[in-house]
Amino acid sequence: MLDSSPLLEFSHTHCVAICAFLVPANLLSTLQTIVYVGLKRPVGKIWQTVGLASLFALLMVLHVLTWFVVGVVMLPTFVLLMLGSVCLSTNLWAALHPQSMRRLLHYLGCKLKALWAFTASGATLS
Fold first, then answer.
1. Residues in CB range of 77: below 8 A, 6 or more apart
2. Rounded to whole angstroms, how far apart are CA atoms 33 and 52?
3. How far apart are alpha carbons 81 and 57 in whole angstroms?
4. Would you say 56 and 28 are in contact if contact means Cβ atoms under 8 Å apart?
5. pLDDT of 3-57, one tens digit each?
6. What is the number of other CB atoms lying within 10 angstroms of the CB of residue 121?
7. How many angstroms separate the CA atoms of 29 and 101, rounded?
8. Confidence (pTM)
C-alpha cells in the first residue's frame, strides 16, 4: 500500500515555498490561457497552456486538501482552495468552450473601450 505521510509532511514543511510558487504560477498561467483564447491562438497552443495551468491549479487544490486532512481550517486555506478552483474552472472553460469565453472577452473589451473614450473626453460619472 502507498504511504502518503512523507508527501503530507513535505507539503506541510514547505508550505510557504509551495504557495509562493503556486499562487503566481496559477494566476499567470490562467491569464495566459485567457489571452490565448482572446487572441484566437491555435487550439494546440491553447490546450498546452490549459494543461500547464490546470496542473498548477490541481496542485494548489491538493496542497490545500493536505491541510484539511490534518484539521487546519482557516481563512488562508479557503482562499487558496477558491483560487485553485477558480483557475481550474476557468481553464476547463477555455478548453471546452473557448467560443463563449471569446464572446465575453470581446464584450468586456468593447465596454472598456467605451469607458476609456468616455473618460478621455473629460466627462465624469455623477
1. 64, 67, 68
2. 9
3. 9
4. no
5. 778 888 888 899 999 999 999 999 999 999 999 999 999 999 999 999 999 999 9
6. 7
7. 16
8. 0.85
Q: Cell 472598456 belongs to which residue?
A: 112
Residue whose entry in the numeric block shows the C-alpha cell 497552443: 45
Cell numbers placing 118: 468616455
Q: How far apart are CA 76 and CA 81, in angstroms?
A: 8
Half-sphere exposure of 91 (CA within 13 A, CB side): 28
Residue located via cell numbers 509532511: 9
Question: What value does the CA radius of gyration of the chain take, rounded to a whole number of Å?
Answer: 19
Q: Which three cell numbers stand for residue 51?
A: 494543461
